[in-house]
Amino acid sequence: MSDPAVDVVELLVTASRYTEDRGLDADDLPPRYRRVFWSDAPEDEAGPGGVDRPLHVTEPNATTATGVERPWEAISDLLFTQRTEFSGELELTQPDMATEWLLERVDDDRLLANPVLAKVAEEADAEFDVTHEEARAENRPIRADRVWIDALLDEYFDDDEDEDGDGMLDLVTVKAPEEIEMTLRDLVLTDDQEGEIRKLMKAIEHREYLARIGLREIGKLLFVGPPGTGKTTAARALAHELGLPFVEVKLSMVTSQYLGETAKNVEKTFEVAKRLAPCILFIDEFDSVAKTRRSDEHAALKRAVNTLLKSIDDISLVRDEVLLISATNHPDQLDAAAWRRFDEIVNFPKPDRQMRADILEIITRRMEIADFDSQEAAERTEGLTGSDLRMVLREAVLEALTEERMSITQADIMDAVEDFEERDNLKNMDMIEGEGAEVPEVAGDGGEASDDHDRSHDGHDHDHDGHDHSHDD
After folding, report:
1. How confident is the model over 155-204, as pLDDT tens digits?
2. What pairing do the DSSP bridges indicate for beta strands 57-58 and 50-51?
3. Is the residue at 470 inside a domain?
4. Is residue 294 within 8 Å of 330, Cβ to Cβ?
5. Are strands 50-51 and 38-39 parallel, antiparallel or unpaired?
6. Is 420 helix (H, G, I), strand (E, B) or coil?
7. What's the pLDDT at 351?
8. How far apart are CA 234 and CA 192, in angstroms?
9. How far apart are CA 227 and CA 233, in angstroms?
10. Is 244 strand, coil or helix?
C-alpha cells in the first residue's frame, strides 16, 4: 500500500527539480503530474500548450496529482517541508534532505514511472536498476495526453478560416491512450494476429532505419472479419500499448447525406492525424468505399471517397508517423483499388472453441458462478463471437437478478445460450406469422460489442462493461 507521505514528497521533489533543471522537459514528468500543471500558453514549450515553470504545488493540486486527501497533514511532521498559509503552497525547505529521505523509500517501479525521479536517483548514485532514459521510454510523451490533444484541436480549428470544423469533429473521435483500458495482454488473439502486431511494433520502433533504406510503404493495415470479432478493440489496445493517440473515423459518416459534400473534411481528418503524430488513424466500415464507388448517384460523395483513397496513398508511417488501420465486415465488397492501398491484411475470424472458453473466463472473472465449466459453455456456443458471448452472460445475470440472486449457476448460463440461439433464429426469419411484416435486424454491423476477445494472463482487472461498445466490432 502506498505511503501518503512518500507520494506527496515525491511530487514536491519532482516539482522542485523540474523547476530548476532546464534540461528536463514535459516528457520527463509522469502523466498524472502533467495534467495538474498543464498550461495553455507555456513560456518554453512548443505546440498548443505544455508545462510551464515554476511548478507550484498547492494542497488541491497535490490531492489531484497523488490521490492523497490531506497532503499537508501527511507531511507536516517532516523537518524539510513547509506550508505557506496565505497561498496554501507546499514547499521543501531542504531539498537535499527531502531527496535523501525519498530515495530511501522508493523502488525501481516508482522510478520507472517518474523520469525526473529516475534522473535524481541516477545523479545521486543511488542503488537502483532504472536509468533516466529507461524511465522516459516507459512513459508516454505529452503529445499523447488528453489535455494536449484537446489544446491542439482547439488551436487547429480556431486558426481555421473555414466554418466547417464542427462537421469535421462529427466525423472524427480522438481518444488519448489513458482513456483506453484495453492492452494487448488483455486480448485473445490468433497466432497470425499476434505475428502481424509484433511486426508492426518493430516497424514503429525502427522507423528511422526503414526510412534510411527507402522502405516507406509500410504501416497500412486492413482488419477483416465479422462483427464482434475484436477489430476495433485490437486497434485501440495497440494505441494503449504504444502510448499513441487513437484517431477514429467511421466511414459511413463520410458517405452520409449530412457529410456527403465535405471532401474537405476527409482531408482535415488526415491533417489532424498528422498534427497528432505519432498516432493511430483507424478507419471503420471501410467497405463504405466500395458501396459509394459503385453508386451512380451523389457525385459529391464520390469526390469525398476519391479524396480518402488519395489521402491513404499519401500518408506514411515512416514519413508522417501515422499508423493507418482500416476495418471491414464485408471484404467481398472491396474492389482491387481498395485492396491495394494496404500492405498487410489481418484476418479476424470467429473464435474457435478454446478462444471462446478463454473469452468466457474473462467475462466471468468477477462474477460469482457455481461450478462454472467454460469448456462446456464453449462447446455449446459454436459460431458465436465474443460480443455474442457477452450478451449470453448478461442475460444469465439479469435472469438471476429477477430471482433476487446475486450469483449465477452453470444452468443459468446454458439456459441463456438457448435463449440466445432462439433470438438469433428470429433474426433470420423473413416474416412474422400473421403480420406479413419483415423482422427488423437487431443492431447494425457497428452495433456489436468489441470486448469479445478479451483475456488477462497477468491479473489485470479491467471494467469491460465500462466501454462504449456502440462503435466497436
Report:
1. 777 655 555 555 566 678 999 998 998 888 888 899 999 999 999 889 88
2. unpaired
3. no
4. no
5. antiparallel
6. helix
7. 95
8. 13
9. 11
10. coil
